[in-house]
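Consider the following assembly input.
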Amino acid sequence: MARHEVESEVTGNVWKVLMTPGAAVSEGDVIMILESMKMEIPVESPSDGTLAEVCVAEEQQVEEDQLLAVVEA
Amino acid sequence: MSWEAEIKELERRRYLAKQQGGSEGIAKQHAKGRLTIRERIDALLDPDSFREHGRATASPVYDDNDELVEYAPANYVVGFGKIDERRVVVGGEDFTLKGGSPNAAGLRKSVYAEHLAVQYRVPLVRMLEGGGGSVKGSAKKGGTVGEPVFTEPRFKIIADAMSEVPVISGAMGAVAGFPAGRLVASHFSVMTRHTAQILIGGPALVERALGVKMSKDELGGAQVHASSGIVDNLAEDEYDAFAQIRRYLSYLPSSVYERTPRYDSDDPVERMEQALLDIVPRESNTPFDMRAIVNMVMDTGSFFEIGATYGPSQICGLARLNGQPVGVLANDCRFYAGAMTAEAAQKYRRFVETCDTFHLPIVNFVDQPGFMIGPESEQAGTIRYGMAAVAAAAQATVPWAVIQVHKGFGVATAAHYAPGAYVLAWPSVESGALPLEGGVAVAFHREIAAAENPEAKRKEYEDRLREGRSPFPRAESFAVHELIDPRETRPLLCEWVDWIQPQLDTLVGPVRFGMRP
């Protein structure tokens, strides 16, 4: 089973978490939305599989390269 | 008596000089998944086009009877060749000999490469793999040391070349010391993802000086340099690197003294893409795909991006408009809303200087919210690098077109305009000193703080200002040339390309200074 770590490309806040661990995901599904520089940045699943972990909570601050979620394929 | 004996001996020596590090050295190179310098040159160039300079260069060793017993080839190979039928200079270290660390004739030939390209006014392609100087051999007592004091600095020609001819470097293996310096002194550089490292000093030096144990890859592998700005592009393997080098050169003239070749395009100039009408969302905090816009406007398939993973809020690349090569600049709002970070600004400045050096027109798709703000950005010295980008644009001499796609806020926006720019605006344009949201918080902070419900008051101001925002006044005031239907962008830019042809004819020639690394 391949483990895909989804990292933040930007510094910002977690605005909305749209999925809960255990959910089935397809590549490109939006797992959460970050807010950075007043832009809403969708965080997409890198592959088909299962959302294994969500590592952040809404309104939490995140930094570049911070782990946001894990998808198992 | 003819000279047949000497000719035979010369042929033998030329043969020996081509043996590189011998079959063992070559096998070792292949085992590491890497080509030899001669294989690289053959794979890069048009077939049978290599014309080597210094075919018999070597360090010969004779025995007491004056018989040749050893013939170590110069470990730098250089000469002319052709890429898409246009002449170039190509050179590179032979890693199978002394790990590419220069031997006597090898050093001379490596310095010669820049001179050759500048003298004959053709691009220089370096295939780098080597470790620079070595302390071995510098411990000889007696004799002369160093270069004569009146010798021109060896690095002058490296800097001069960058204002005269396109310089391209590929890192094909470990590139350290002087060769790493050469790599960044290039208009375009590429490294192989799995087999190259770029280092100022390798693991042994680092451990001795700092007590830190790190591998070559940890210090200077692709994962470091994809975001360090040291290299522009990554390549999957050496053949991908050669393909990228060939492609890059197709957009550039052979030197500042020539026009860029303009190829026939079969992409209609009148092509209007329906998708451009709604690609920018009405909600200004929803990101959109700027690369899709660039690809729809430029000749189909012609966009070649440079440095995508460094300073990603700024997109830089080369493309064609009705066959005319152009430099493309565009903001990617998915990274910090497209803001100018310190990295983006450095990438921008180097790219504008490169286009200016080679008289490439620039097309600039603007969605600029301003310089990046926040503690990291202040610490990174962003505004200094940002103003260097602004200065490069303000003094640019090439034809320049601006498409105001969306935002244009703050001082950073000045970096998107050069003198004489042709300015087109889309209806989605927004501009000012500050973006509306932040601007309201600053300008009306007293009113907002005094309100019963500050949050509602802030929103009220924002909504009121947003309603008053209209794209029409800038067209009415001749603050832009035209307010346009986004679908007209390609036809209008192709027409502009016709207008600038006389200017491009007269711009050829030397530049005040070229791109500085």
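The radius of gyration of chain A is 11 Å. Ask yourself how this observation constrains the way the partners meet.
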